[in-house]
Design goal:
The chain is of the alpha/beta class. Helices cover about 40% and strands about 15% of the residues. The chain has an eight-stranded mixed sheet with strand order 1-2-4-3-5-6-7-8, sandwiched between helices. Mean pLDDT is about 95; it is low at about 1-10. This is Pimeloyl-ACP methyl ester carboxylesterase.
Length: about 290
């Protein structure tokens, strides 16, 4: 019997009802459509915690941590007992236990991990957030828990780790997995999935810059990479449909002390549990 063809890895799609709502807003008013797009862009999906993450959840000591800069509480997980700590940062619509396979292997190597549900994610409060709140959470966690030897971030968490290091997070090394890169590219991709005219990508950027009084490109990962001196391992899958591999290679090219590891066929999330990827992370961590 012939083997069934393997389904190609697909990017997450925006529900049709949201696309139709965006088009209705655009018909009524460009400003309304921009505000609607901004609302959707900053609203993560809170997925149910899968059974595979239950062990890390149950064995972690947990606490609510107040982050004064953003006036929000976040849910923090401390997994393991070692004083040698690794910070784990999930991506958009992720959870603090999502990197559990990496955490389990780090525990075997004598580390403990600190992770968290970012604002509006997992068990943390709120329904809307942006990357600057991820970064503020990371920096507050460092204040409360002390020095981290390593920081590991996935997707938006990777961008946040690089920006946090640029803003003062002290770590010996960092690992970023499937990280986004240029903010405008992310906005372009979002507007494309929302099936609005591309002018809304620029309108969305201006909306956020006016609201938060920041330059969005300042948060682009490659810009942070240019200011980072510590060793950084960049891991990305050639077939990632959500964050194209060019993001990872561009970040790597802008690092002074970067290492690049590309995989095939793992996409955006399976990469987190792949044994070869975890082995590569552990090898990188052990290098003096």
């Amino acid at each position: 019997m012939a083997k069934k063809a393997i389904n190609p890895i697909k990017s997450l799609k925006i529900p049709q009802i949201i696309i139709l709502s965006a088009k209705v807003c655009a018909f009524v008013s460009k400003n309304l459509a921009t505000k609607f797009a901004a609302k959707i862009f900053t609203t993560p999906i809170k997925h149910k915690v899968p059974k595979r993450e239950f062990e890390m959840d149950s064995k972690s000591s947990k606490q609510l941590l107040y982050v004064p800069v953003i006036n929000k509480n976040i849910y923090v997980y401390h997994y393991g007992q070692s004083e040698r700590k690794v910070l784990l940062v999930h991506g958009w619509s992720g959870r603090g236990t999502q990197l559990f396979k990496i955490a389990d292997e780090l525990l075997k190597q004598g580390y403990s991990t600190i992770s968290f549900d970012a604002p509006a994610h997992g068990k943390s409060e709120g329904s809307n957030t942006i990357m600057s709140e991820f970064i503020a959470s990371i920096l507050e966690i460092e204040k409360q828990f002390g020095f981290f030897e390593i920081a590991i971030g996935h997707s938006l968490g990777g961008m946040s780790v690089l920006n946090a290091i640029k803003d003062g997070l002290k770590v010996k090394k960092a690992v970023i997995i499937g990280s986004g890169d240029i903010v405008q590219d992310i906005l372009d991709e979002f507007i494309s999935k929302l099936k609005l005219d591309m002018e809304y990508s620029e309108r969305l950027r201006i909306f956020f810059e006016d609201k938060y009084q920041v330059k969005m490109d300042d948060f682009s990962a490659y810009r942070a990479a240019q200011k980072i001196k510590i060793p950084v391992l960049v891991i990305h899958d050639n077939d990632d449909p959500e964050v194209l591999v060019k993001a990872g290679t561009h970040i790597y090219q802008n690092l002074e002390n970067g290492f690049l590891y590309l995989t095939d066929g793992l996409g955006h999330r399976k990469i987190l549990g792949n044994q070869n990827v975890i082995k590569k992370i552990l090898e990188f961590v052990k290098i003096s």
